[in-house]
Structure formats: structure tokens, C-alpha cells
Amino acid sequence: MNRITQEHLNIISKAINDYAGIVLERIPQNRAKKKIINQMNCNNCKNVENYIELLLNYENNSSVMDDFVDEITISESCIFRNPKQFEYLKEVLFPSFFKNNKNNFPLRIWSAGCSHGEEAYSIAMLAKDFMKKNPESRFTINAGDINKNSLQIAKRGIYSSKSLQGKIDYFEELLGFSIGKHDGKGNCIVSDDIKEMVDFHWMNLKDINNLKIMQGTDIIFCRNVLIYFDEVLRKKLLETFFECLNPNGLLFIGECECFNIPEKTFAIVDNQGSYAYRKSESK
Ligand SMILES: C[S@@+](CC[C@H](N)C(=O)[O-])C[C@H]1O[C@@H](n2cnc3c(N)ncnc32)[C@H](O)[C@@H]1O
Hey, is 163 helix, strand or coil? Predict the structure, then answer.
């Protein structure tokens, strides 16, 4: 196996940036090289040139690119990750939306960069809970990701005890219903009625123009995704999220993320230490 040179890195970096907007340079070079070698092995490539050829030919074999996206992003997530944001959704946002919902619209939520689906199913579980108590309420939950492997996992809805933080009994007690079949060891298959509430689809956040179909959304979750992109794409995405959101719509980013979000577009909302960004009315 030959050495990975700066020239190889430049080609791979451009390929992944062109495809997904991901900045390879965010990863320390040694780690990036290890990840490339790992993918070369998985794809039985004898040398870097072979791997680059496969990668650049992704339109004919997108799983090579998907696997590389998977390798360099952290697709791991968990049910009710950043629980304060979900508490805010349940306690404040759902009740206030339906209180003011004179036209009986559904509450439209979009999980952008949904990975294995834990975020979208957490929303669906809360929505199911809300609908039980408020039968007139309706929800649409869209969840998109660039990674086809992750979407397959999401659609299957089978989670390990780790994805459920070992708290399945606690969640079920809190919600008051079963979230699926479990095996006594904390692993769970999400029940069909919760699965049916989420529409999973392939989506590349780099294709800004194609995101306009999400116009009319009330709440966007784009958590732990923007971190992979450069400033230019981040700015374009924030503008697009703004356009896609209904008046007063909300954007959630990851609790540990901190970006330059223009005040003219989004106003920060602090709900007991859980932050969200509300579409400003002034623009
Ligand atoms: C760390 S996971 C975030 C999962 C979830 N939002 C959460 O916070 O738990 C990042 C996800 O972003 C996805 N992603 C990266 N680039 C993307 C792009 N250009 N379009 C759509 N999804 C992308 C990755 O495939 C990965 O599933």
C-alpha cells in the first residue's frame, strides 16, 4: 500500500467537499489518513489511486462516498439526545402551536441530517404522546440524510441499549406507552405506529435549491451537522432554513454548537438553558 501524499489528500478533500460540503481539513491530518486507509481496506483497494478512482466515480457507486461520509462524520446519536431541547418541544412548543392553530394545520418538523433516525423518532414519540392527549393535533415529521446506509438503519428502527442510553424503561414510564419491542437487555425495535409517523428520505444539504421543498416547516432540527461544513455553506443553509420556516418557526442546532447566526434573521430563545433560534419577524 502506498503512502497518502498531500496531493492525494487534496483530491479526496475536494471530492468530499464537492459532494457533501464537508471540510476534510477539520479532521487532524493523521486521523484523516487513518480513515482513508480504513476505507481503502474496506473497498479492497491496493493503493490510494485505486481508492480515489472509486471515490470520484461515486455517481456509479454511491456507497463508496456514503461510507466515506460515514467514516469522517460521527453518525452515532441517541434517543432524546440533548433532553432539554425535547422538554422545550413537549412542554412549550407543541402546546403553544396548537393553541394558536386556528386553521388546524399540522405541525411540520424537519430533522435535517437525521443519521440513524434517533432524533426523528424522539420527536415522533413526543408527538404521539401529545396526540393521545390532544386528538385533534396533527404532525408531519420529515427526516433527511445524505447517507443511504444511515437511512436504511433509520427505517429499520432497531436500536441498541447504547442508542437508548440504557433508559428504555424510564422513557416508557415518562411517555406512558411502549416505544417498541424490547429484549430485556435494553435493545429495542421501534413500534410501527411510531415508525409510520416519520418520512425518511435521501437529502443532500449541499443541494441548496432542492431544499426549497421544505418550505412551510415550523421547526427544523439541524443538530451536529453544520459543524462539518465551511462558513459559506453554513451561511447559505441558515438563509435557506430561514426561507423554509414559517413565521415564528424555530431552528435547533446542537447544544455544543456555536455559530455566527445573524440577529436580523434569527432571535435566540433561551428556555431554561436550552437554546433555539426563532425566525425573526422583521426580515
Ligand atoms: C453527527 S450526525 C447528526 C445526527 C443527529 N442530527 C444528532 O444530532 O444526533 C451528522 C449527520 O449529518 C449527515 N450529513 C453530513 N453531510 C450531509 C449533507 N451534505 N447532507 C445531508 N446530511 C449530511 C451525516 O451523514 C450524519 O448522519
Answer: coil
Q: Are residues 58 and 194 in the same domain?
A: no
Query: Which of 145, 202, 211, 253 has most ligand 1 atoms within 8 Å of CB, for mutation?
Result: 145
pLDDT digits (tens, 9 = 90+) for 69-100: 989 988 778 999 999 999 999 999 999 999 98
Question: What's the predicted TM-score (pTM) here?
Answer: 0.93
208, 210, 225, 232: which to mutate for ligand 1, most atoms within 8 A of CB? Answer: 225
Is residue 160 located within the same domain as residue 263?
A: yes
Cα torsion 104, 221, 237, 204: sign: negative
Beta carbons within 10 angstroms of residue 118's beta carbon: 24
Handedness of CA 148, 151, 155, 158 (dihedral sign): positive
Range of the structural domain that residue 202 is part of: 83-279
